[in-house]
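Lab notebook, bench 4. Still working through the backlog of constructs that have no structural model yet. Next entry is a single chain of 85 residues. Request: give me the structure tokens for it.
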Amino acid sequence: MNCDPILPQSAEAAEPSDAESRFVRLETMISELEHMVEQLNGAVVEQGKALRRMQAQQLQVAATMETLELERIRATNSKPPHSVI
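Model written out:
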């Protein structure tokens, strides 16, 4: 029985194969893409929250403007003399 440590037969056997290298690169790329998707999802969620806040503010501004416009119209429209008591 030979007690020599097992050594690769050639330098090629010690290096990963082309398919293995490609597989590792693909796994790395997928991992990076998953991270990017998580970041983008977070950004979309934050933008959705900001959009809802802006929509609520816009509704408040529109209601305020409508109230101010109605008050302005009422203030500038004088009542006919016969309706003054």
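Notes after review: The chain has two helices and no strands. Helices lie at 11-14, 18-76. Flag for follow-up if needed.
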